[in-house]
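Tokens help. Consider this.
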Amino acid sequence: MPDMPATTVFTIGELSRRTGLPVKTIRFYSDEGLLPPTQRTNAGYRLYDAHALVRLELVRTLRELGIGLPDVSRALARETTMRDLATSHVDALDEQIRRLRLRRAVLRAVLKRDSELEEVELMNRIARMPDEERRRLVDEFWDEMVDGLDVDTEFYTRMRSAKPDLPDDPAPEQLEAWIEFAELVQDPDFRQLIRDMSTRHARTVAAGEYEQPTKAQQEHWFAWIAEARTALDAGAAPDSPAGRALADRIATASARPGQDPDDPAFRTKLLETISEGADPRSERYWQLLATINGWPPIPSTQEELRFLAAALRASGVNPA
């Protein structure tokens, strides 16, 4: 702004032309005490000097930064420092951004699901859950899944130990994953699926038939999945020589002392185990947790699991 004589005075209309602010806004600032007039004409019209013009530009800058009128007034009166003012407003903006991200995540979920009105309220409540409530939701889910069942404690402790843990500043995809995850663990069909799996698990424990995966299964599982993917990409069928050879290797590595890997009954149980873990909803549970918690992405292995199951079936199992 070029220097001007200190004696120069402006009407509100001239201030408006120089600053681009509406006359109504300038008059409002003046009425609120943020821009007291330098003097008045005999007719009572307000006049402002060059210092008032500078002050008006400062008021506009602070307002454009989202600072409220009371804080602008305190800053102009030197009742607070700009550092303190900026600190408090950065905190407020961070909270506002967090709320806006929550709203965006809910609205994105609404678009994806083409949700009805009742679902929108539920999704909004889910998105705003505090950390403690999110963890409690998972604990209550697993409590119901094993209620009254004698299950392998070590296995289910591992299952329930993974909790959704959103960061303080979650990415949009993490919020969307949390909404989907919360809906999944509250879905009656999914709960029934996991409860049925837990019931079958408890039966094997009661019959003394439950066994943790063998060391070979743990060490080679991902290699077998990769082999299944290679076979699929090559267009090989599950009952092809490659598919049967893979099924034989899996059966041999999975057999414990005293078990015959070629026994149709053994392969039938192995097939049941693989098929049970191949439900896409179970896989989605862990994929969503990975997104929420910032873990490495978990790719889908549905096609590979179906190939392994079909290869085992073709290699010789007891007829259903």
